[in-house]
Amino acid sequence: MIPAAGSGARLGAGLPKQYVEIAGRPLLHHALRALALHPRIEQVFVVLAQGDDRFRRFDWSDFGVRIKPLYCGGETRAASVFNGLLATRDVIAAADWVLVHDAARPCLERDEIDRLFGELDEDDTGGLLAVPAADTLKRANRESRVAATEPRENLWLAQTPQMFRYRLLIEALRAADPAVVTDEARAIEGMGLKPRLVMGDTRNIKVTFAEDLALAELILRSRQPPAVSRQRSTARTSREHSKGDGRKKSRKR
Ligand code: CTP
Ligand code: MG
């Protein structure tokens, strides 16, 4: 389930950030790729804002019928995920695993999904990708001066995907206050449960501000994603083609 119904206000790109293009594709296309191509993932539901008229302008054929848009986004991320789960109640079984992944995280890789499956398959609660906090943490006062240095031990930064069973997740979100719940794990915690932290990758960044876009593009290009290599090979083919023509002509002459 990919919540993609936000407006991207902090990025300020003039369009919702899921449609901002990097490395030749919209952010959403990159965010979907590892999930849609994973053999154990049956279906990827993309929760779009009601009245979204951009999704259908892009080419999603790389992923065939595995991608299904749902035009039922809500006021908050939690509401969008909840609406998406409601809309799919007839096709997802209560005990099925659901992975929720931000459209704003374009650098997710197969390895991280496999780690989630490996560590959570037999888990009663489920869990999430996260990375241990590496920087020293300062708590600020109202004047942006350091009020305290917080111990970093045992602090993790939550990422997505977050993986929970359908019934537990929808009940947790139904009971949650959407203003407080900024990720699925928080809703599960509200049920008195303890989601498991699974080691993520610091490159699985969330694009929030403009400088994050440049970083995400660097990460994607360093991996030569399909979109980029396809563009290159198309360019090469047409160059080789014209070279070939040239040679033929010169031979004729
Ligand atoms: N999201 C959503 N529905 C909302 C708000 C957010 O589906 N009402 C999605 C976003 O599209 C994004 C993810 O939740 O994929 C994470 O949210 P965030 O990074 O905050 O994205 P935006 O809300 O779009 O950005 P901003 O807060 O800067 O406006
Ligand atoms: Mg937001």
- How many helices? 7
Give helix and strand order, one letter per element, not per position: EEEHEEHEHEEEEHHEHH
Q: Tell me the helix content.
A: 25-40%
The spatial strand order of the largest sheet comes to 6-10-7-11
What are the SSEs and their pairings?
Elements (H helix, E strand, L loop, with lengths): L1 E3 L16 E2 L2 E2 H10 L7 E5 L18 E4 L6 H11 L9 E4 L9 H11 L6 E6 L4 E4 L5 E5 L5 E10 H10 L8 H6 L6 E4 L10 H13 L3 H27 L1
Parallel strand pairs: 1-4, 4-5, 7-11
Antiparallel strand pairs: 2-3, 6-10, 7-10, 8-9
Bound molecules: cytidine-5'-triphosphate (CTP) and magnesium ion.
Account of the protein in words:
With 253 residues, this protein is an alpha/beta fold. It has 7 helices and 11 strands. It has helices spanning 27-36, 77-87, 110-120, 166-175, 184-189, 210-222, 226-252, and strands at residues 2-4, 21-22, 25-26, 44-48, 67-70, 97-100, 127-132, 137-140, 146-150, 156-165, 196-199. Strands 6-10-7-11 form a 4-stranded mixed beta sheet. The chain has a 3-stranded parallel beta sheet with strand order 1-4-5, with helices on both faces. It has a two-stranded antiparallel sheet with strand order 2-3. A hairpin with a 5-residue loop joins strand 8 (137-140) and strand 9. Mean pLDDT is 91; it is low at 236-253. The chain binds cytidine-5'-triphosphate (CTP) and magnesium ion. Residues 3-11, 17-18, 47, 73-77, 80, 102-104, 206, 208 line the site of cytidine-5'-triphosphate.
